[in-house]
Each structure stands twice: as structure tokens, then as C-alpha cells.
Amino acid sequence: MFLTPDFLSLRHFFCPENQGKLILGQHKVADKSNEITALPTLLKERYLKGCIVTLDAMGCQKDIAAQIVAQQADYVLALKGNQGRLLEDVQAWFDWAQARHWRDVAHRFHQTIDKGHGRIEIRRGWDLSDPRAFEMLGHHEGWQGLQSIVMLQRERRIGQPVQAETAYFISSLPAEAVRLLRATRHHWAIENSLHWTLDFTFREDEARLRSGNSAENFATLRRIAFNLLKRHPGQDTMKRKRFRAAFDDSYLFQFLTQL
Which DSSP symbol is given to 51? Predict the structure, then answer.
């Protein structure tokens, strides 16, 4: 999961740029289970008032949406095929609105363009709060606090061909395209900023710890190390910071004094 005074994302609480990109919590998944069973506990253990909780499609559940609202937070939940016809109906509504060129359809739009490292990323977000849309979606009962549906298009240009994808979300937030696009962008950034670092810099997927609580203990240590490295003001990459800290005790001491 992903958390700031604005946000939260699955299995880890993770602050974006203005909060230092820190992991604030984790929860062990029970044997022969999956993350969805641990998610309510992880949410309950955190003070969420005023936050926006963003979750992948697996967390797009009515009970979880209700819990988030009960904890005085808002949600932005990704839609896939695990919610029956809800995704199809949301897609159909956006298709209809686009065919009309958004004429007489209550909506908001926002676009961002980022350039760097030889690539261009364009993100376009539309959100709808048109009462007619919610009349059409009315048979999908039980989504506590639902106020808007969102379509997000992401286009990445690194030479040819152009990579493009479209994603859909439901949210308890009012239709504010700028805020919703920012929330979904930070959620996607977790894959690169957190999971990629744990997998490739800390080699977490290659760990073969199985005995007792060793896997959980070392997972906790990696996340403590991740937070210390992220909080350090140096401009080196995470990998270079780790390497230098291994050979320079005075440099290592700079990290440890943050505890």
C-alpha cells in the first residue's frame, strides 16, 4: 500500500517525494493465503484520516473500500476483471463519452508530460462524476463513498514503437483530475522506486532464507536499510551508497546516526 498525508499502496506503506519515500509498515501474509487477507489488518493498524489509499485490482473489494472510508480516508482502486461487469461498464461509459467528444458530459481532464533519460512520458487522466454514469453503475451496489470513475492513459516514447496503456479506477474522491492523476502516478511509481530496488539492488527475490522467522526478519532489515539510504541527502544511487558504506566506516556512520 501507499501512504502520505495524501496516499497508501499494497503490502507496504510508502511516502512519495515530499515525504522522503519511506516504507512505514508491512504485514506478514499467512501460509496458504494471499495479501488480501492481510490487507484489512494492515489498514486497521494505521492512522489513515485525511489520506488517499491507492490499491491494485486485488485490493478492489467492497469491504476494503468501506473500511477505508470508515477510517476517514479516501480510496483510488484499480479496476480489472475481478469485479464482474464493473470494469466493462466503466469502460463502456468512457467509450460513450469519447464518442460524443465529451459533449454535455460532466468531466475533468488533466495531462502531464515528463522528459528525461531519452524518453518522453505522457499521462492523461479523465474523471467523471456525471450523475448519468452513476445511474448506469447503480446496479453495482455496496461501494461505500464512490464519487468518481477514472480513465488513465499512459504513453511512453523511447524511439519506436510507442508504448501505451489504459487503466481504469474508481474513487471516493470528487472528480478532481489533477489530484487523481497525481495519486495514480505515485502508485505506479512504487514499482520502480520500491519493488525494483528491493529486487535488483537488495536482491530480495534471490534470498533463500526459509528457517523459522529468518525471511521475515531479513525483510524487515532490508526495509530499514532502504529507509536509511533514502533519507541520506547524498546524490549517489542506492547501489553506490551501499557499496561505499561497506568500505567506509565514517560514511556508514552517517546512515546509522539517522536511527
Answer: -
**Residue 55: CB partners within 8 Å, gap ≥ 6?**
1, 8, 9, 10, 39, 64, 75, 76, 77, 78
**Rounded mean pLDDT of 55-78?**
90
Q: CA-CA distance, 126 to 107, in Å (whole number)?
A: 7
What whole-number percentage of the chain has pLDDT above 90? 13
pTM for the model stands at 0.73
CA distance 235 to 241: 9
Hey, what's the cell of 32? 496458504
Alpha carbons within 13 angstroms on the beta-carbon side of residue 56 total 12
Q: How many CB atoms lie within 10 A of CB 245?
A: 20
* Cβ count near 57 (within 10 Å): 18
Residues 72 and 49: their CA atoms lie apart, in Å, by 5
Beta-strand runs (E) in the chain: 52-55, 74-78, 107-116, 119-128, 148-157, 163-171
128, 195 Cβ separation under 8 angstroms: no
Cα 7 to Cα 77, 139, 162, distances in angstroms: 12, 29, 30
Stretch among 7-21, 106-120, 163-177 having the lowest mean pLDDT: 7-21
Contact residues for 153 (Cβ-Cβ < 8 A; gap 6+): 122, 123, 124, 125, 164, 165, 166
Nearest to 110 by CA among 178, 64, 203: 178
- The Cα 196–Cα 194 span in angstroms is 6
